Amino acid sequence: MSSASRLTLTAPMKGDFIPLESVPDPAFAEKMVGDGVAIDPVEGKLFAPCDGEVVMIHPAKHALSLKTQLGVEVLMHIGIDTVKIRGEGFDVKVAQGQQVSAGDLLIDFDIDSVASQAASLITPILITDQEAVAHFDIQATNQLEPGDTLFDAHINTGQSTADNAGPVVQSKLLTVANATGIHARPAAYLVKIAKQHPTNITLLAGQRSANAKSVVAIMGLNIGFADEIQFQTSGADAEQILGQLEQAVISGLGEDVQAVDTEQQDSIEQEPSLLFSHNDNANELTGICASPGFAHGPLFKLEKMTYDYPKYGSDIESEANLFEMALKNAKQLLQQALQEQQAEEHNEQAEILAAHMELLDDPALATDTLNQIEQKLSAPAAWQNAIDSQVTILEGLNNPLMQQRAADLRDVGFRVLRQLLGIDEADLSKLPPGCILATEEMTPSQIAKIDANLVSGVLTVTGSASSHVAIIARSRSIPMLAAVDDSIMNTVNGTDLLVNADEDFVLLEPSDDQVAQLNAKKLAAEALQAKAQQSAMELTTTLDGVNIEVAANLGDVTKAQTAAEQGAEGIGLLRSEFLFLDRVTAPSEDEQVQAYSTLLNGIGRERSAIVRTLDVGGDKPLPYVKIPFEENPFLGERGIRICLDRPHLLRTQFRALLRASPGYKLRIMLPMISSLRELTIAKQVLHEEADKLGIQAVELGVMIEVPSAALMADVLAQEADFFSIGTNDLTQYTLAIDRGNARLASLADNLHPAVLRMIDHTVKGAQKYGRWVGVCGGMAEQVSAQPILVGLGVNELSVSISSIAETKYRVRTFDSNVCRQLAEQALLCDGPEQVKHLIQQSNLLDV
Questions:
Q1: Angle at 184 between CA 182 and CA 185, to 5 degrees
Q2: Distance (Å, rounded) from C-alpha 216 to C-alpha 219?
Q3: Are 663 and 684 in contact (CB under 8 A)?
Q4: Quick one: angle between helices 647-660 and 589-603, nearest 10?
Q5: Burial code of 27-61, b = ≥16 C-beta within 10 A, e = fewer?
Q6: Cβ proximity of 555 and 578 under 8 Å
Q7: Phi first, then psi: what are they for 383, rounded to 5°?
Q8: Cα angle, residue 594 at apex, residues 589 and 596 outer, rounded to 5°
Q9: Mean pLDDT of the chain, nearest integer
Q10: Residue from 50, 643, 776, 819 carrying the catalytic annotation
Q11: Which of 468, 643, 752, 819 is catalytic?
Q12: pLDDT tens digits for range 740-759
């Protein structure tokens, strides 16, 4: 028995009403995709026709769907055959997973450009769940304005589910031959076949899956040309169903196709790259340094855990109870692990586990799981579907931070899944002594449990230097390489390995001489560390009397006293984001005053402390600051731009900093400055707030992160009190390489002469007006880069607390004149390889 509710859709664009039957594409005209109407647009804007959640944005940006409060999905498909344009002329203004209201702008498109390339601009607006629609009441007129009533759809709110009896059967692996993949038309063709059968049918594409009876769900898988797919179903006629679907895919799903030449595809993928250097030595594998150090020991592979569970449950109530108990147990175990890390003052691990607790407490995950259990799915299947859905959204944002959150969510998901299935996590306390642990992917919870006395090093096939796993490995001084060649997982357990994370490689079956060289390097590093620690509190002066201040980079205020005790001559960078992230409201002024006072008390009155103002944006979003979806958040509204656009954030932070400053050497630094105008506006705001408080304004500096700031350094120096160079972002922007792209990581080298010239230009611009320059990016603690930075005239190096003593010791062995000659030669090099060769020849690092 079902009841009907009314759903009203308004016109999402300005244009002429077109009956669906008149759309020049049979997939739409014959209602294979869904039922509804169409509009021939006269303006290039697509608005939301109702309230809902964005559940699908096609990669070609021409199609988008909303899930309404009644549970049905509304698909809007701009133009016919627009998938072939591959996104040109389309600008999506929302993100997948975002809640929108009727009338919100969804897509901006260049109507002339799209019209010149598409078969037609006619845009279908469809309800794809046709079985849910009792009947339509079309109210559209010939000429429509955005917001005009389009139609009322009477939706059946009662639900029925298909019962699959018998074992689950899978089709053979099929290769998609459609040139533009499975977009709306082939998806509709597939759905038409699937809907002829009452059983549940699942489309599998790698680790992702979708209901084969939903056009939107299939389009959301982003299946491209030559991708491999499978179908899964059960029941008495399972083999017959799979046969029909297999034949449909082979024949092109209603489109003319040519057979995919898989041998040609393989040869393209397997041909050696001309861009990346490749090692012909099969016994040497390369990776990315996630945690520095050296390791030698036998290989022990941690195989990826697999989880088998039924898709459907026998009893809704018992499955719901099982899920709630598993969730409760997982939370208790995670809380216990968090308390252990806090008790041992492992702050990095504790912060990451606290973030995992928040993910487990997300009510949307529990609600989604229980809703799917109501549809007779088993508790493990429902939970994993809920996790996979959120992971897909996060990974689809093309954002390193969100992709890290996706990795955290997978880790959380496995915690609960193991509780549901009664499976113990791999016991990482019983590993071969001194082993090198290798795995395809490691989770934060796994690296936190590793006994560093047993494991001498870690290798992962996936991951990056900025992952939470890498952060924990560094905090525990476990040498680690990420993005290691996957052949390591085919290597026999017990194989002797030598890991040199500092130089990004691992040797299989090293010779006695190679092991001896590694041991010599380890002993030398340990001896240097011991010597450095003895003189950690001494000032940093080069052999020829040049003072170089060595300061600390901090991510929270509680480490300031530790930094001072380890020899820091100041705080070169406090990233103030820790105050603003992972909360639902902005921190109050008083809360910020307390935090900055903790910082200043910790470092002391005689040392300076630099606080960087809020540096967030599309790549580091805040739940209480609405930032429109951006294709490339690194080039969007972030850093000083977001604070100048929302002055309340900036004024509140300035006031808090000023209130904490009397009696201390506090300095403020602005992130992402790209023009003098941004600096002068912020400076005016600072002085206005200082005047209101009756407090003298503190020094205001600029973080040099983008090429425009480096090239305009002499102009900025007229207003800025100091510069600090963020070499991670400066390298990214100068070389146009996303620093989160693991594949291109080897090319994002901050010793590239172009980056060195940016630093040189910054220093000379600053010197023109007597300003000092620091470096607070990763390059400051990169041993090979330190003599170059000193030679370029940098006055301060800001590094992690663990690197302070060694950095100070090493800089004291430099002669600034020799460093200057080295830097001048480096500026004339044609690539980073030449620069590194010069550094090696200089013998400056032989200490």
A1: 85
A2: 5
A3: no
A4: 40
A5: bbbebbbbbbbbbbbeebbbbbbbebebbbbbebb
A6: yes
A7: -65, -45
A8: 90
A9: 86
A10: 776
A11: 468
A12: 666 676 788 899 999 999 99
Contact (Cβ atoms closer than 8 angstroms) between residue 716 and residue 705: no
Phi, psi at residue 355, to the nearest 5°? -65, -35
Determine the straight-line distance between the first and last CA of the chain, rounded to whole angstroms: 83
Query: Which residues, in sequence order, are CB contacts of 387 under 8 Å at separation 6+?
Result: 365, 409, 410, 412, 413
What average pLDDT score do residues 213-224 get? 79
CA-based nearest residue to 704, from 678, 731, 723:
723
Q: Please return the burial class of 123, using the count of CB atoms within 10 Å of its CB with bins 0-12, 13-18 and 19+.
A: buried
> Is 468 assigned a catalytic role?
yes
Could you write out the DSSP letters of every residue in 95-136? -TT-EE-TT-EEEEE-HHHHHHHSSB--EEEEES-GGGEEEE
CA trace torsion 707, 710, 714, 717 (10° rounding): 120
CA distance 491 to 461: 13
Which residues, in sequence order, are CB contacts of 63 under 8 Å at separation 6+? 56, 57, 75, 76, 77, 78, 82, 83, 183, 184, 219
pLDDT digits (tens, 9 = 90+) for 256-281: 776 555 555 555 556 777 777 666 67
Pairing of strands 665-670, 699-704: parallel
Q: How far apart are CA 761 and CA 774, in angstroms?
A: 13
| Side-chain-facing half-sphere of 725: CA atoms under 13 Å | 38
Q: In what order do the strands lie in the sheet with 435-439?
A: 284-286, 505-508, 496-500, 294-302, 435-439, 455-460, 480-482, 288-291
Q: Which residue has the higher pLDDT, 488 or 219?
A: 488
Q: What is the rounded radius of gyration, in angstroms, for the C-alpha atoms of the chain? A: 30
Give the percent of the chain with pLDDT over 90: 42
SS3 content of the chain, % helix, strand, coil (to 5): 40, 20, 40
Higher pLDDT residue, 158 or 782? 782
d(CA 824, CA 791) in angstroms, rounded, equals: 8
Amino acid of residue 26: P
- Quick one: pLDDT band at residue 457, thresholds 50, 70, 90? very high
Rounded to the nearest 10 degrees, how much is the dihedral formed by the CA atoms of 76, 80, 81, 87?
-50
Structure tokens, 546: 């040049």
The answer to which of 268-282, 612-626, 770-784 has the lowest mean pLDDT is 268-282
Strand 435-439 and strand 294-302: pairing?
A: parallel
Tell me the two tokens of residue 451: 């006994």
pLDDT per residue as tens digits for the range 199-218: 888 888 876 677 888 877 78
The beta strand positions in 739-792, using DSSP E, are 772-775
Alpha-carbon span 434 to 296, nearest angstrom: 8
Partners of 723 in the beta sheet?
A: 702, 773
How is 205-227 classified by DSSP, letter by letter? ETTEEEETT-HHHHHHT---TT-
SS3 190: helix
Which helix (H) or strand (E) segment holds residue 72: the answer is none
Residue 5's contacts (CB-CB under 8 Å, 6 or more residues apart) are: 70, 154, 155, 157
